[in-house]
Amino acid sequence: MKKHYWLPQSSRAILQSSTGLLGLLIVILGGVGDEPRAQKYYISAPKVVQHQEVPVVFASKKYSIDQVRQGDGVVPRISVDNFPVKHSVRLTASQQKDTFLKTMLPMILQVNEKILVDRRRYLDILSHKGQLSAGDRMWLLDLSKRYKVDFRNSQAMLQRLDIVPASLALGQSAAESGWGLSGIAAKKNSPFGHRVMVREKSKEGNIRHRYTLKKFTSLNEAIEAYIHNINTHPAYANLRNLRYMLRSQGLESNGLQLAVGLTKYSELGMTYVKKVQKIIRQNNLTQFDGAILDSENS
User: Fold this and answer.
1) What's the pTM?
2) Cβ-based neighbour number of residue 226 at 10 Å
3) Cβ distance 284 to 4 under 8 Å?
């Protein structure tokens, strides 16, 4: 079942914000009118692509990662089902990286886009004078449940209801999955090293607990879980505080800056942070923080 996100038809979703970060700005060109608030926003649903179809789809959309880096190309609204992309011929290291980036970037941008649509709606409600509709109240309660914070605490909510820069998500997924070459990450659609505790019973009948890589039904589900984890888990409060401070000051932030808040993502601590920062820096991943999504699913 496709999900739709509402925006006026006169509006356009672009990934460029005056506050920086990845920067999605939903530009509202039309008036609110008498429409319910929930119907103000619309974002095209992505085209779901089987991993076998990826090379053909990329070619048909003239999707060039180099053009996106240079700011001359747009990122298509696609969602790849499984991870990683299979190839009939062995790719060079450069080709593997480009394919990995082209596969992950559209979904990262679209998850961030949905978050910023929610952020804009929340800010819209905060600025509203008068009684809220029943729909708005229900939406706010759901938002509180999802982000684990009372919606009446606007600062706490806005610290969580925000995007993760594409450069950080790409850098971490590259680090955790070996640029998509990890067999276990491929098998479980889990490029971010997301672990869960499982309960097992030994042959002797003893119960034990161990951590294992979480299995996701799709790549998109894994990306949503990763960004939600960054936005809600107590371990990443420092990252969220830094992001909030920079946004409040109208300053741009990127993965290199926010990576310092990942000391608890891995038992390696600062060694892990430096590893992610090195990947971001060496591969110029901050160039993707201003990447633009195609306005429509064509």
Assistant:
1) 0.82
2) 23
3) no
In terms of Cβ atoms closer than 10 Å to its own Cβ (0-12, 13-18, 19+), residue 91 is middle
Long-range pairs, 66-73, Cβ under 8 A, ≥24: 68/105, 68/287, 68/288, 68/291, 69/284, 69/287, 69/288, 70/287, 71/290
pLDDT band per the 50, 70, 90 thresholds, residue 89: low
The kind and range of the H/E element at 98 are helix 93-126
State yes or no: pLDDT of 43 exceeds 50. Answer: yes
The type of residue at 72 is D
The CA angle 140-30-71, to the nearest 5 degrees, is: 90
Q: Phi-psi bin for 59: left (phi > 0), alpha (psi -120 to 50), beta?
A: alpha
Contact 16, 27 (CB under 8 A): no
What count of Cα atoms within 13 Å lies in the side-chain half-sphere of residue 13?
31
pLDDT tens per residue across span 181-215:
898 888 899 999 988 877 777 777 777 777 788 99
Are the CB atoms for 185 and 199 separated by under 8 Å?
no
Per-residue pLDDT tens over the stretch 4-21: 333 322 233 333 333 333
